[in-house]
Each structure stands twice: as structure tokens, then as C-alpha cells.
Design a protein that fits this description.
Elements: E1 2-8, H1 13-27, E2 31-36, E3 48-56, E4 59-60, H2 62-70, E5 80-85, H3 91-94, H4 101-110, E6 114-118, E7 121-122, H5 128-138, E8 144-145, H6 149-164, H7 166-169
Parallel strand pairs: 1-2, 1-3, 3-5, 5-6
Antiparallel strand pairs: 3-4, 7-8
Helix pairs in contact: 1-6, 2-4
The structure holds flavin mononucleotide.
């Protein structure tokens, strides 16, 4: 079984989440390709997809949005999971945050089984304009790393179990 883990990320934290998910998939015996969503040209040969996106003011990361539009057809008969990463507080872990309207559109396009929201990261060490924003937001107390690797890895193990479940292939 080969799984594609694709992501839209500007500051790298969503890419890192995708990497943790890929690690859990490999530990579960799956073949994994981990790629930025805008570098995927061909989706032939994948048995399942995980697509993740950072959330910005304009919504779901544009690379992930474009991916969902480009590859909606090919994944119609393959299982798909989506995740968003964004909230710079603990709300994503404390409550079940629903997809924003763009993530919801991607869910429809890709007929995703599930969407989950994970916390995000924004720190003053960020590069370029992100660092500038972070240094400004720091005064308002909205910076930090709110990702929970244990929760993310546990979610990935659950997805891996579904992908490898014999029931699915029956
Ligand atoms: C300018 C800006 C706008 C943001 N807007 C949102 C938002 O609307 N909703 C949200 O949940 N997170 C928002 N975030 C937080 C990011 O989603 C979070 O920092 C995320 O981890 C970034 O992922 P990346 O490092 O992969 O780009 C925003 C961050 C910045 C810098």
C-alpha cells in the first residue's frame, strides 16, 4: 500500500506535521511519499491520500486548495483524509474544530472521510514576513508552538489502521 502525504505550508510547521504522519505510516508498514502539494504532478499508484494545509487569513493554504481542485477525480475511489493546522492556542486540542469553508470544499472535492484540525506554530524565529508578523503578534501573546505531536501521531496511527484494514479492501 502506497500513501501520498501532501501539504501546503508557508512557515514549515505543517510540513513538519506531515512528516510526523509519514513516520507513523512507515512504522505501520506503509510505503509513503511525502511531498509539498504544489510539487505533485501525478497521483497514479497511490492507494490513499492525506492532504494537510496551514490556515491563513485567506483560508486554507492555496497549494492545498489547488491540489484538491486538480486531483478531485482521481481520488474519487480512494480513501482521503484532510487536516488543517492553524489555531495559535489550545482550542484545536480542547474542542473538535470544524473545517473552514475552504477545507469543507476540499472535503467535497476529494470525498474525504475525515477532517481534523491541529494547533499551529508561529514563533519569532520564523523567516521573512512570517517573522515580522510573529514579532508583532508576540506582544499580544499569540505566538508559540501549539502542535501536539502525540495527538497528531495517534491520529496518524488510526488512519494507518484504516488504510491497512482488510475490511476496506473487501
Ligand atoms: C498572517 C497570519 C494569519 C493567520 N491566520 C490564521 C487563521 O485565520 N486561522 C488559524 O487557525 N490560524 C491562522 N494563522 C496561524 C497559522 O495557521 C499557523 O501559524 C500555522 O502553523 C502556519 O503553518 P505553516 O508554518 O505550515 O505555514 C495565521 C498566521 C499568520 C502569520
Amino acid at each position: 500500500m502506497t500513501v501520498l502525504v501532501a501539504y501546503g505550508s508557508t512557515g514549515g510547521s505543517t510540513a513538519e506535521i506531515a512528516g510526523w504522519i509519514a513516520e507513523e505510516f512507515r512504522a505501520a508498514g506503509l510505503d509513503v511519499r511525502l511531498l509539498p502539494a504544489d510539487e505533485v504532478d501525478d497521483v497514479a499508484g497511490y492507494d490513499a491520500l492525506v492532504l494537510g494545509a496551514a490556515m491563513y487569513a485567506a483560508g486554507w493554504h492555496p497549494d492545498a486548495r489547488r491540489f484538491a481542485k486538480r486531483f478531485a477525480g482521481p481520488f474519487a475511489d480512494r480513501p482521503v483524509w484532510l487536516f488543517s493546522s492553524g489555531p495559535l492556542d489550545h482550542t484545536a486540542d480542547d474542542t473538535d474544530l470544524p473545517p473552514d469553508h475552504q477545507a469543507e470544499a476540499a472535503m467535497h472535492l476529494l470525498q474525504a472521510r475525515e477532517h481534523v484540525t491541529f494547533g499551529g506554530r508561529l514563533t519569532a524565529e520564523a523567516h521573512g514576513w512570517l517573522g515580522f508578523v510573529a514579532r508583532r503578534m508576540k506582544h499580544e501573546g499569540h505566538t508559540g508552538d501549539f502542535r501536539d505531536p502525540q495527538r497528531i501521531r495517534a491520529w496518524a496511527r488510526g488512519v494507518a489502521a484504516e488504510i491497512t484494514s482488510p475490511r476496506r479492501q473487501a
